[in-house]
Each structure stands twice: as structure tokens, then as C-alpha cells.
Specification:
By secondary structure, the protein is mainly alpha-helical. The chain is built from 13 helices and five strands. Helix 1 links the parallel strand 1 and strand 2. About 40% of the residues are buried. The chain binds adenosine-5'-triphosphate and L-tryptophanamide.
Length: about 325
């Protein structure tokens, strides 16, 4: 194989607006890696239809999310940004891999168990084979690393098992990818539920990157701190998870250590601390929101990014697909 940079790939479902957790826990870190790695990031629109979607909304979000990715610093010149459904090889490889994945393996996936109990009137086959499509997403690009949240680790492990099984029959077809799980520092908790990760399903405690500075200020003013009488800014994740979360956000954005933050707010109380964190977040998100707002109006540009992303992605993906088709015995013509 030719000498190449290490490769990184990840996907996010265009199932909602991006929030501070997505930005600090994922996208911001992806953006700084684009010099060091060959990076592929895509919107997993095919995965979203495992649960019912409003078609117009899905189309809108698929474009908005691209604008937001770019505004967060994912430069389309340095990263291959594309929409999953624009590269048919994903669905094509998924079928082959379906035949190398066991029913028992898929039955053990916790996301399937969770989602099938949540959407019990629509336990469709796509929900069940979702991890196989994800394995295809990954293996097509032969990545070395797959940065994902903890909840996706099991799917990447399954991907490795499928790849190893395939390679053991046909030789070295797939690179075996490593999951890259973001560090604990990158875990942002909900402002109103500091025991659970920040999530779009709890919008009051979730700061969206498109929120106005006023909305951000309001959400931080209402952030849950703690009920003890001490009421001082001190890092104690067990006793004061809300304060710890705010300190973590503040520290990530300003680069200040927890000790420095404790000193800065010594004797000032939460009434000063919470708005200060809100202000730092608002000023970090302002240029992103403005840039995303500008980009979303330029549909021709976004279309072009998607078009060129799909072209670059297809080139890599089709190379793997051709190899797989050949290995399993699909006749590919005389030459
Ligand atoms: P939901 O909001 O419904 O829980 P989500 O925003 O977590 O969904 P995902 O597609 O699961 O959406 O996450 C996309 C990426 O953002 C993943 O890499 C995940 O690890 C990261 N991420 C999501 N929420 C957080 C968070 N609160 N803190 C840090 N990283 C997060
Ligand atoms: N299942 C992931 C999204 C996803 C993905 C991928 C992530 C789809 N395909 C390939 C990494 C690699 C999720 O729901 N967060």
C-alpha cells in the first residue's frame, strides 16, 4: 500500500441542531486534526430514517448541518465533507456486510435494544441492521481512527469484528479501525440536568450553537448549581456537579485551570459566575452563528461542497467496494 497520512472518519446524524456538547466534545477536536490526518466527515442521513423523519425537515437539516460544520472550523478544503446518501457505495457495501454479520451480534447491540423499546410501533429491519450500515460507512474509507462518543463504541467494536471476519476469509481487505473516545474533559453535561450529558432532547439545558446571546445568557442564569450552603465556586464533581460542569465549560473555552477559576471567582458567588460563563460561551459561539447564518444563505456554495465531497469520497469508497465485489465473486466483466 502507498505511504499515506493516517485517516480519520466520523459521522453525525442530521437529526437536530448542533449544540455546545457536539461542538466541544467532537467538532472542535476534529477541526484541529485536519492538518495531521486525512479526514472524512459525513452527515449520516441514511441512518436517520430508521426512525420516521419529516422529509422537508431532513433536507433542511442536512444543509444546515453542513453550514454549521464549516462555521465550526471544518474547512472543506482540508476535510472531505459529504452526505452519506450521495455515495451509493455505503448501501452497496452494507448489503455485502449484512451477509457477514450474525443475527446474534446485532441482537446484542444496546442502541437497538434502547431504540426498539422507545419506538416499539416501528421496529423495522433498518433499526436492526443500523450497525452494519455504520460498519460499511467506516470500512469503505479504510480509516485508522473513528472518533465517536462512548455510546457508539459498541458499534465500532462490531465493525472491527466484521472486518476481521472478512479479512480472515479473503485476506487484508479492510483496515481495522480504532475507536477514539473523547476524554472525560470533553463531556459536557446539561445545564438543568448536570448528571446527564447535554442533549437536544432536553432543550432548556442545552445550548445550541445557533442560539442568540440573549437565549444563552438566560440558559446560563437558570443553570443548576447546587443546594449546599457554601455557594462558592469550587471544583467538586461529586458534591457539586453543576458547578463542575460550568467550570469545565469555562476552562475549555478560556484555557484557565480550575484553580485559576476558583481564584477568579473567590468570594463572588454563583450570581457572578453563571453569567460570566454564559458570556464566554456567547462570545465563542457568536462568530460561529454568524458564519453559519451567512453560509446557509449561500445554497450554491453548500451544494458545491456536497458535490465535491461526494466525488472525493466516492473515489475512495468505490476502490474498496470494487475490491470487496471481486473478493466475494461478483463478476466484473472481462477487464
Ligand atoms: P442527542 O443530543 O440526541 O443526545 P447527540 O447530540 O449526542 O444526540 P450524536 O450524534 O450522538 O448526537 O453526537 C455527535 C457527536 O457529539 C458525538 O461524537 C458525541 O460524542 C458528541 N457529543 C454529543 N453530546 C455531547 C456532550 N454532551 N458532551 C460531549 N460530546 C458530546
Ligand atoms: N451512529 C452514529 C452516527 C454514525 C457514525 C457512522 C459515526 C453513522 N455512521 C460512522 C462514526 C462512523 C451516531 O448515531 N452518533
Amino acid at each position: 500500500m502507498e505511504e499515506r497520512k493516517k485517516r480519520m472518519l466520523s459521522g453525525i446524524q442530521p437529526s437536530g441542531d448542533l449544540h455546545l456538547g457536539n461542538y466541544l466534545g467532537a467538532i472542535k477536536n476534529w477541526a484541529v486534526r485536519s492538518e495531521e490526518y486525512d479526514c472524512f466527515y459525513f452527515m449520516a442521513d441514511m441512518h436517520t430514517i430508521t426512525v420516521r423523519q419529516d422529509p422537508a425537515e431532513l433536507r433542511r437539516r442536512s444543509l444546515n448541518q453542513l453550514a454549521q460544520y464549516i462555521a465550526c472550523g471544518l474547512d472543506p478544503e482540508k476535510n472531505v465533507l459529504f452526505l452519506q446518501s450521495h455515495v451509493p457505495a455505503h448501501a452497496q457495501l452494507a448489503w455485502v456486510l449484512d451477509c457477514y454479520t450474525m443475527f446474534g451480534e446485532l441482537s446484542r447491540m444496546t442502541q437497538f435494544k434502547d431504540k426498539s423499546s422507545k419506538f416499539h410501533d416501528n421496529i423495522n429491519a433498518g433499526l436492526f441492521t443500523y450497525p452494519v450500515l455504520m460498519a460499511a460507512d467506516i470500512l469503505l474509507y479504510q480509516p485508522d481512527f473513528v472518533p465517536v462518543g462512548e455510546d457508539q463504541k459498541q458499534h465500532v467494536e462490531l465493525t472491527r469484528n466484521i472486518a476481521q471476519r472478512f479479512n480472515s476469509v479473503y485476506g487484508d481487505v479492510f483496515t481495522i479501525p480504532e475507536p477514539l473516545i473523547s476524554k472525560t474533559g470533553a463531556r459536557i453535561y446539561g445545564l438543568t440536568t448536570p448528571e446527564a450529558k447535554m442533549s437536544k432532547s432536553v432543550p432548556e439545558g442545552c445550548v445550541f450553537i445557533m442560539d442568540s446571546p440573549d437565549d444563552i445568557a438566560r440558559k446560563f442564569r437558570k443553570a443548576v448549581t447546587d443546594s449546599d450552603t457554601e455557594r462558592c465556586v469550587r471544583y467538586d464533581k461529586e458534591a457539586k456537579p453543576g458547578v463542575a460542569n460550568l467550570m469545565n465549560i469555562y476552562s475549555t473555552l478560556t484555557g484557565k485551570s480550575f484553580e485559576e477559576i476558583e481564584k477568579e471567582f473567590d468570594g463572588k458567588g454563583y450570581g457572578v459566575f453563571k453569567p460570566a460563563v454564559g458570556e464566554v460561551v456567547a462570545s465563542c459561539l457568536r462568530p460561529i452563528r454568524e458564519e453559519a447564518g451567512r453560509l446557509i444563505k449561500d445554497k450554491a456554495y453548500l451544494d458545491e461542497v456536497y458535490r465535491s465531497g461526494a466525488e472525493k469520497a466516492s473515489w475512495v469508497a468505490n476502490k474498496t467496494l470494487r475490491k470487496v465485489y471481486k473478493k466475494v465473486g461478483f463478476y466484473q466483466g472481462l477487464k
